[in-house]
Design brief:
heterodimer, A: 169 residues, B: 4-stranded antiparallel sheet, 4-stranded antiparallel sheet, elongated
Protein backbone atom coordinates (compact mmCIF):
# COMPACT_ATOMS: atom_id res chain seq x y z
CA UNK A 1 0.00 0.00 0.00
CA UNK A 2 1.29 3.41 -0.92
CA UNK A 3 1.18 6.47 1.29
CA UNK A 4 -1.31 8.17 -1.11
CA UNK A 5 -3.66 5.19 -1.00
CA UNK A 6 -3.43 4.98 2.80
CA UNK A 7 -4.02 8.69 3.37
CA UNK A 8 -6.89 8.84 0.92
CA UNK A 9 -8.68 5.85 2.41
CA UNK A 10 -7.78 6.58 6.04
CA UNK A 11 -10.71 6.18 8.43
CA UNK A 12 -10.27 7.39 11.99
CA UNK A 13 -12.41 4.64 13.45
CA UNK A 14 -11.40 1.71 11.32
CA UNK A 15 -7.92 0.50 10.52
CA UNK A 16 -7.71 -2.24 7.90
CA UNK A 17 -5.13 -5.00 8.02
CA UNK A 18 -3.32 -3.43 5.04
CA UNK A 19 -3.43 0.00 6.66
CA UNK A 20 -2.08 -1.45 9.90
CA UNK A 21 0.78 -3.11 8.03
CA UNK A 22 1.53 0.18 6.30
CA UNK A 23 1.73 2.37 9.41
CA UNK A 24 4.10 -0.14 10.98
CA UNK A 25 6.56 0.64 8.21
CA UNK A 26 5.81 4.29 7.43
CA UNK A 27 6.50 6.90 10.13
CA UNK A 28 4.70 9.77 8.41
CA UNK A 29 1.51 7.76 7.83
CA UNK A 30 1.73 6.53 11.44
CA UNK A 31 1.79 10.15 12.62
CA UNK A 32 -1.18 11.01 10.45
CA UNK A 33 -3.06 7.97 11.64
CA UNK A 34 -2.34 8.66 15.33
CA UNK A 35 -3.42 12.26 14.87
CA UNK A 36 -6.74 10.97 13.60
CA UNK A 37 -7.08 8.33 16.30
CA UNK A 38 -4.54 8.01 19.17
CA UNK A 39 -5.51 4.35 19.69
CA UNK A 40 -3.78 3.59 16.40
CA UNK A 41 -0.43 4.06 18.12
CA UNK A 42 -1.15 1.06 20.35
CA UNK A 43 -2.62 -0.91 17.46
CA UNK A 44 0.57 -0.36 15.52
CA UNK A 45 2.61 -1.92 18.35
CA UNK A 46 1.09 -5.33 17.67
CA UNK A 47 1.44 -8.22 20.11
CA UNK A 48 -0.85 -11.03 21.12
CA UNK A 49 -4.28 -10.60 22.64
CA UNK A 50 -4.02 -10.72 26.42
CA UNK A 51 -6.48 -12.86 28.34
CA UNK A 52 -6.52 -13.77 32.02
CA UNK A 53 -5.87 -17.31 33.25
CA UNK A 54 -8.98 -19.39 33.02
CA UNK A 55 -10.62 -17.11 30.49
CA UNK A 56 -12.44 -13.84 30.59
CA UNK A 57 -15.66 -15.34 31.97
CA UNK A 58 -13.88 -16.92 34.94
CA UNK A 59 -12.02 -13.67 35.58
CA UNK A 60 -15.22 -11.64 35.50
CA UNK A 61 -16.98 -14.17 37.77
CA UNK A 62 -14.10 -13.96 40.23
CA UNK A 63 -14.18 -10.17 40.26
CA UNK A 64 -17.95 -10.16 40.75
CA UNK A 65 -17.53 -12.66 43.59
CA UNK A 66 -14.90 -10.54 45.30
CA UNK A 67 -17.10 -7.46 44.94
CA UNK A 68 -19.99 -9.41 46.43
CA UNK A 69 -17.88 -10.58 49.38
CA UNK A 70 -16.54 -7.08 49.96
CA UNK A 71 -20.06 -5.66 49.84
CA UNK A 72 -21.16 -8.22 52.43
CA UNK A 73 -18.17 -7.39 54.62
CA UNK A 74 -18.98 -3.71 54.43
CA UNK A 75 -22.64 -4.33 55.20
CA UNK A 76 -21.65 -6.35 58.25
CA UNK A 77 -19.21 -3.81 59.59
CA UNK A 78 -20.54 -1.93 62.59
CA UNK A 79 -22.24 1.24 61.43
CA UNK A 80 -20.60 4.56 62.25
CA UNK A 81 -22.96 7.10 63.62
CA UNK A 82 -22.09 10.64 62.61
CA UNK A 83 -24.02 12.98 64.85
CA UNK A 84 -23.62 16.64 63.92
CA UNK A 85 -21.93 18.82 66.53
CA UNK A 86 -24.99 21.02 67.01
CA UNK A 87 -27.08 17.96 67.94
CA UNK A 88 -24.42 16.83 70.42
CA UNK A 89 -24.48 20.21 72.12
CA UNK A 90 -28.29 20.29 72.15
CA UNK A 91 -28.41 16.83 73.67
CA UNK A 92 -25.73 17.72 76.22
CA UNK A 93 -27.57 20.88 77.21
CA UNK A 94 -30.88 19.04 77.57
CA UNK A 95 -29.36 16.27 79.69
CA UNK A 96 -27.42 18.77 81.79
CA UNK A 97 -30.52 20.86 82.40
CA UNK A 98 -32.48 17.81 83.44
CA UNK A 99 -29.74 16.60 85.79
CA UNK A 100 -29.17 20.07 87.24
CA UNK A 101 -32.86 20.61 87.90
CA UNK A 102 -32.97 17.20 89.58
CA UNK A 103 -30.03 18.10 91.80
CA UNK A 104 -31.52 21.44 92.72
CA UNK A 105 -34.89 19.93 93.45
CA UNK A 106 -33.89 16.82 95.43
CA UNK A 107 -30.23 17.25 96.33
CA UNK A 108 -27.85 14.40 95.71
CA UNK A 109 -26.05 11.84 97.76
CA UNK A 110 -22.40 11.20 96.87
CA UNK A 111 -22.13 8.21 94.66
CA UNK A 112 -19.46 5.73 95.50
CA UNK A 113 -17.64 4.47 92.42
CA UNK A 114 -18.70 0.94 91.71
CA UNK A 115 -16.24 -1.77 90.90
CA UNK A 116 -17.93 -2.50 87.59
CA UNK A 117 -15.56 -2.89 84.67
CA UNK A 118 -16.26 -3.13 81.02
CA UNK A 119 -16.00 -6.52 79.53
CA UNK A 120 -16.25 -7.91 76.05
CA UNK A 121 -19.32 -10.04 75.70
CA UNK A 122 -18.06 -13.44 74.72
CA UNK A 123 -19.91 -16.45 73.43
CA UNK A 124 -20.30 -18.99 76.17
CA UNK A 125 -17.33 -21.28 76.11
CA UNK A 126 -18.96 -24.41 77.37
CA UNK A 127 -16.83 -27.52 77.24
CA UNK A 128 -17.37 -29.46 74.03
CA UNK A 129 -20.13 -31.92 74.57
CA UNK A 130 -19.59 -35.48 73.45
CA UNK A 131 -21.71 -36.24 70.45
CA UNK A 132 -24.41 -38.86 71.02
CA UNK A 133 -23.69 -42.22 69.44
CA UNK A 134 -27.16 -42.44 67.91
CA UNK A 135 -27.84 -39.11 66.28
CA UNK A 136 -31.13 -40.13 64.73
CA UNK A 137 -33.28 -43.23 64.58
CA UNK A 138 -36.11 -44.09 62.22
CA UNK A 139 -38.81 -44.58 64.82
CA UNK A 140 -39.80 -41.83 67.20
CA UNK A 141 -41.42 -44.46 69.42
CA UNK A 142 -38.17 -46.28 70.10
CA UNK A 143 -36.36 -45.97 73.41
CA UNK A 144 -32.63 -45.41 73.12
CA UNK A 145 -30.39 -45.97 76.10
CA UNK A 146 -26.75 -45.02 75.86
CA UNK A 147 -24.91 -46.78 78.65
CA UNK A 148 -22.50 -44.43 80.36
CA UNK A 149 -18.88 -45.11 79.66
CA UNK A 150 -15.57 -43.45 80.20
CA UNK A 151 -14.58 -41.30 77.19
CA UNK A 152 -11.32 -43.20 77.04
CA UNK A 153 -13.09 -46.56 77.16
CA UNK A 154 -12.64 -48.83 74.15
CA UNK A 155 -16.28 -49.91 74.21
CA UNK A 156 -19.60 -48.09 74.07
CA UNK A 157 -22.92 -49.89 74.40
CA UNK A 158 -26.20 -48.48 73.15
CA UNK A 159 -29.53 -50.26 73.57
CA UNK A 160 -32.45 -49.66 71.26
CA UNK A 161 -35.92 -50.91 72.18
CA UNK A 162 -38.23 -50.64 69.25
CA UNK A 163 -41.58 -52.40 69.10
CA UNK A 164 -41.85 -51.86 65.36
CA UNK A 165 -38.99 -54.29 64.77
CA UNK A 166 -39.87 -57.71 63.32
CA UNK A 167 -40.72 -60.39 65.87
CA UNK A 168 -38.20 -62.83 64.38
CA UNK A 169 -35.34 -60.35 64.72
CA UNK B 1 -22.20 22.85 95.30
CA UNK B 2 -18.76 22.56 93.68
CA UNK B 3 -18.93 18.80 94.09
CA UNK B 4 -22.27 18.81 92.34
CA UNK B 5 -21.11 20.94 89.43
CA UNK B 6 -17.99 18.93 88.72
CA UNK B 7 -19.74 15.81 87.39
CA UNK B 8 -22.11 18.06 85.47
CA UNK B 9 -19.27 19.81 83.69
CA UNK B 10 -17.64 16.50 82.98
CA UNK B 11 -20.87 15.20 81.51
CA UNK B 12 -21.21 18.33 79.41
CA UNK B 13 -17.71 17.91 78.07
CA UNK B 14 -18.20 14.24 77.35
CA UNK B 15 -21.41 14.75 75.44
CA UNK B 16 -20.67 17.94 73.62
CA UNK B 17 -16.99 18.43 73.45
CA UNK B 18 -15.63 15.22 72.07
CA UNK B 19 -16.84 14.71 68.51
CA UNK B 20 -13.40 13.74 67.23
CA UNK B 21 -12.98 11.07 69.85
CA UNK B 22 -16.44 9.71 69.13
CA UNK B 23 -15.79 9.51 65.39
CA UNK B 24 -12.57 7.61 65.90
CA UNK B 25 -14.18 5.12 68.19
CA UNK B 26 -17.61 4.46 66.75
CA UNK B 27 -20.25 2.53 68.60
CA UNK B 28 -19.56 -1.19 68.46
CA UNK B 29 -16.10 -0.65 67.00
CA UNK B 30 -14.80 -3.73 68.81
CA UNK B 31 -16.70 -5.86 66.30
CA UNK B 32 -14.61 -7.08 63.40
CA UNK B 33 -15.40 -8.79 60.14
CA UNK B 34 -13.44 -11.72 58.78
CA UNK B 35 -13.88 -13.74 55.61
CA UNK B 36 -13.17 -17.45 55.39
CA UNK B 37 -13.03 -19.30 52.08
CA UNK B 38 -13.11 -23.09 52.05
CA UNK B 39 -11.31 -25.51 49.79
CA UNK B 40 -12.52 -28.86 51.02
CA UNK B 41 -15.74 -28.35 52.97
CA UNK B 42 -19.00 -26.55 52.35
CA UNK B 43 -19.37 -23.09 53.86
CA UNK B 44 -22.90 -23.92 55.04
CA UNK B 45 -21.54 -26.82 57.12
CA UNK B 46 -18.83 -24.58 58.49
CA UNK B 47 -21.51 -22.11 59.58
CA UNK B 48 -23.18 -24.86 61.58
CA UNK B 49 -19.85 -25.81 63.14
CA UNK B 50 -19.08 -22.31 64.40
CA UNK B 51 -22.60 -21.34 65.46
CA UNK B 52 -21.93 -22.05 69.13
CA UNK B 53 -18.87 -19.78 69.12
CA UNK B 54 -20.65 -16.68 67.85
CA UNK B 55 -21.77 -14.15 70.43
CA UNK B 56 -25.16 -12.44 70.51
CA UNK B 57 -23.71 -9.42 68.68
CA UNK B 58 -22.02 -11.54 66.03
CA UNK B 59 -23.42 -12.67 62.72
CA UNK B 60 -22.62 -15.10 59.92
CA UNK B 61 -23.23 -14.67 56.21
CA UNK B 62 -22.85 -17.58 53.78
CA UNK B 63 -21.74 -16.95 50.20
CA UNK B 64 -22.46 -20.26 48.42
CA UNK B 65 -21.13 -19.08 45.04
CA UNK B 66 -17.64 -18.55 46.43
CA UNK B 67 -17.98 -21.12 49.25
CA UNK B 68 -17.19 -18.36 51.70
CA UNK B 69 -18.29 -17.37 55.16
CA UNK B 70 -18.26 -13.76 56.29
CA UNK B 71 -18.26 -13.63 60.07
CA UNK B 72 -18.71 -10.54 62.19
CA UNK B 73 -17.94 -10.72 65.89
CA UNK B 74 -15.61 -9.61 68.65
CA UNK B 75 -11.95 -10.16 67.88
CA UNK B 76 -11.57 -12.72 70.67
CA UNK B 77 -14.42 -14.80 69.24
CA UNK B 78 -13.07 -14.48 65.70
CA UNK B 79 -9.78 -15.95 66.87
CA UNK B 80 -11.60 -19.01 68.20
CA UNK B 81 -13.64 -19.26 65.00
CA UNK B 82 -10.51 -19.05 62.85
CA UNK B 83 -8.80 -21.79 64.87
CA UNK B 84 -11.80 -24.10 64.55
CA UNK B 85 -12.26 -23.47 60.83
CA UNK B 86 -8.61 -24.15 60.17
CA UNK B 87 -9.12 -27.68 61.49
CA UNK B 88 -12.51 -27.98 59.84
CA UNK B 89 -11.37 -27.31 56.29
CA UNK B 90 -9.17 -30.38 56.11
CA UNK B 91 -9.15 -32.62 53.02
CA UNK B 92 -11.53 -35.59 53.15
CA UNK B 93 -10.11 -38.42 55.22
CA UNK B 94 -10.44 -42.08 54.50
CA UNK B 95 -11.91 -44.55 56.99
CA UNK B 96 -12.44 -48.23 57.42
CA UNK B 97 -15.65 -49.35 59.08
CA UNK B 98 -16.23 -52.90 60.17
CA UNK B 99 -19.77 -53.99 60.94
CA UNK B 100 -20.49 -57.29 62.60
CA UNK B 101 -23.97 -58.65 63.24
CA UNK B 102 -24.40 -60.86 66.27
CA UNK B 103 -27.57 -62.65 67.33
CA UNK B 104 -27.74 -62.50 71.12
CA UNK B 105 -30.13 -64.48 73.29
CA UNK B 106 -30.84 -65.41 76.86
CA UNK B 107 -30.86 -69.20 77.29
CA UNK B 108 -30.39 -71.75 80.05
CA UNK B 109 -26.84 -71.83 81.28
CA UNK B 110 -26.21 -75.25 79.75
CA UNK B 111 -27.39 -74.22 76.29
CA UNK B 112 -25.34 -71.00 76.17
CA UNK B 113 -22.78 -70.94 73.43
CA UNK B 114 -20.21 -68.34 72.57
CA UNK B 115 -17.97 -68.81 69.53
CA UNK B 116 -14.31 -68.06 70.12
CA UNK B 117 -14.32 -64.99 67.86
CA UNK B 118 -17.15 -63.46 69.91
CA UNK B 119 -15.64 -64.15 73.33
CA UNK B 120 -13.95 -60.74 73.55
CA UNK B 121 -17.30 -59.07 72.86
CA UNK B 122 -19.23 -61.27 75.29
CA UNK B 123 -16.65 -60.57 78.00
CA UNK B 124 -17.09 -56.85 77.50
CA UNK B 125 -20.85 -57.22 77.69
CA UNK B 126 -20.98 -59.43 80.76
CA UNK B 127 -22.73 -57.49 83.49
CA UNK B 128 -24.03 -54.93 81.03
CA UNK B 129 -26.63 -56.93 79.14
CA UNK B 130 -28.73 -59.94 80.07
CA UNK B 131 -27.76 -62.14 77.12
CA UNK B 132 -25.50 -65.15 77.55
CA UNK B 133 -25.48 -66.78 74.13
CA UNK B 134 -24.04 -65.22 71.01
CA UNK B 135 -23.94 -66.26 67.39
CA UNK B 136 -22.20 -64.45 64.57
CA UNK B 137 -24.63 -63.61 61.78
CA UNK B 138 -22.55 -61.62 59.36
CA UNK B 139 -19.59 -59.34 59.00
CA UNK B 140 -18.40 -56.75 56.54
CA UNK B 141 -15.59 -54.27 56.30
CA UNK B 142 -16.09 -51.16 54.20
CA UNK B 143 -13.66 -48.41 53.25
CA UNK B 144 -14.40 -44.92 52.06
CA UNK B 145 -13.74 -41.22 52.41
CA UNK B 146 -16.00 -38.60 53.92
CA UNK B 147 -19.04 -38.23 51.69
CA UNK B 148 -18.73 -41.68 50.09
CA UNK B 149 -21.78 -43.93 49.86
CA UNK B 150 -21.38 -47.62 50.70
CA UNK B 151 -23.67 -50.49 49.76
CA UNK B 152 -22.78 -53.95 50.99
CA UNK B 153 -24.25 -57.43 51.48
CA UNK B 154 -23.51 -59.38 54.61
CA UNK B 155 -23.93 -63.06 55.28
CA UNK B 156 -27.30 -64.33 56.40
CA UNK B 157 -29.20 -62.27 53.83
CA UNK B 158 -28.43 -58.95 55.50
CA UNK B 159 -27.87 -55.82 53.46
CA UNK B 160 -26.44 -52.52 54.65
CA UNK B 161 -26.09 -49.15 53.01
CA UNK B 162 -24.83 -45.92 54.48
CA UNK B 163 -22.86 -42.75 53.88
CA UNK B 164 -19.52 -41.89 55.41
CA UNK B 165 -20.29 -38.50 56.96
CA UNK B 166 -17.95 -35.86 58.29
CA UNK B 167 -15.12 -36.49 60.67
CA UNK B 168 -15.28 -34.37 63.80
CA UNK B 169 -11.84 -33.41 65.02
CA UNK B 170 -12.92 -32.37 68.51
CA UNK B 171 -14.60 -35.65 69.38
CA UNK B 172 -12.43 -37.78 67.06
CA UNK B 173 -15.54 -39.37 65.62
CA UNK B 174 -16.86 -40.15 62.18
CA UNK B 175 -20.50 -39.76 61.30
CA UNK B 176 -22.20 -42.71 59.64
CA UNK B 177 -25.28 -41.26 58.02
CA UNK B 178 -28.49 -42.97 57.02
CA UNK B 179 -27.36 -46.46 57.84
CA UNK B 180 -30.11 -48.74 56.64
CA UNK B 181 -30.02 -52.38 57.61
CA UNK B 182 -32.28 -54.73 55.69
CA UNK B 183 -32.70 -58.48 55.49
CA UNK B 184 -33.85 -60.80 52.78
CA UNK B 185 -37.10 -62.38 53.88
CA UNK B 186 -36.53 -66.15 53.73
CA UNK B 187 -40.14 -67.26 53.93
CA UNK B 188 -43.68 -65.95 53.75
CA UNK B 189 -45.38 -63.54 51.38
CA UNK B 190 -42.36 -61.27 51.16
CA UNK B 191 -39.97 -64.15 50.51
CA UNK B 192 -36.90 -62.99 48.62
CA UNK B 193 -37.61 -59.31 49.27
CA UNK B 194 -35.47 -56.97 51.32
CA UNK B 195 -37.26 -55.97 54.49
CA UNK B 196 -36.02 -52.87 56.27
CA UNK B 197 -34.98 -53.54 59.85
CA UNK B 198 -33.69 -50.20 60.99
CA UNK B 199 -32.44 -46.85 59.78
CA UNK B 200 -30.22 -44.66 61.88
CA UNK B 201 -27.35 -42.15 61.87
CA UNK B 202 -24.43 -42.68 64.23
CA UNK B 203 -21.36 -40.92 65.54
CA UNK B 204 -18.58 -43.45 65.96
CA UNK B 205 -15.49 -42.59 67.93
CA UNK B 206 -12.45 -43.73 66.01
CA UNK B 207 -10.95 -46.91 67.44
CA UNK B 208 -13.82 -47.49 69.86
CA UNK B 209 -16.06 -50.54 69.62
CA UNK B 210 -19.69 -49.45 69.55
CA UNK B 211 -22.24 -52.17 70.25
CA UNK B 212 -25.82 -51.36 69.33
CA UNK B 213 -28.17 -53.85 70.90
CA UNK B 214 -31.50 -53.81 69.09
CA UNK B 215 -34.56 -55.60 70.49
CA UNK B 216 -38.32 -55.13 70.64
CA UNK B 217 -38.42 -54.42 74.38
CA UNK B 218 -36.24 -54.65 77.50
CA UNK B 219 -37.69 -58.06 78.37
CA UNK B 220 -36.85 -59.60 74.99
CA UNK B 221 -35.00 -62.87 75.15
CA UNK B 222 -33.33 -62.13 71.83
CA UNK B 223 -31.57 -59.13 70.36
CA UNK B 224 -29.64 -58.25 67.26
CA UNK B 225 -26.33 -56.68 68.08
CA UNK B 226 -24.62 -54.51 65.54
CA UNK B 227 -20.97 -54.07 66.41
CA UNK B 228 -19.16 -51.16 64.78
CA UNK B 229 -15.48 -50.32 64.79
CA UNK B 230 -14.30 -47.31 62.77
CA UNK B 231 -10.63 -46.76 62.04
CA UNK B 232 -8.67 -44.18 60.11
CA UNK B 233 -7.05 -45.44 56.94
CA UNK B 234 -3.35 -44.76 56.99
Amino acid sequence: MSCETFLSSMDAAELTADGLAHIRTCASCLSASVAANPDNLFRSLGGEELSPDGGVDAFVADVVQQVHIRRTEVSMEPSRRHVPLVYRWSLAAAVSAAVLSGFLQFGVAPVEPTGARSSTPMASQSPLATRPVIESYQSGEATIVELPSDPSSDIQVVMVFDETLPVDL
Amino acid sequence: MNKTLLPLLTLLLLLGGSPILADDAPAGSNLSVKTFQFKHKEASRAATAIKSLISAEGSISIQPSSNTLVVSDHIENLKNVAALLLKFDAPSRSFKLSIRLVAASRVDQGAAKIPDELKPISQKLSGLLRFNSFESVGEISAEGAEGDAVVCDLQGGFHADFLFGEYDVESDSIRVSDLQLSRLQPTGEQSGELVKLLKTSLNLKVGQMVIMSVSRDPQSQKALMVVFVARKNS
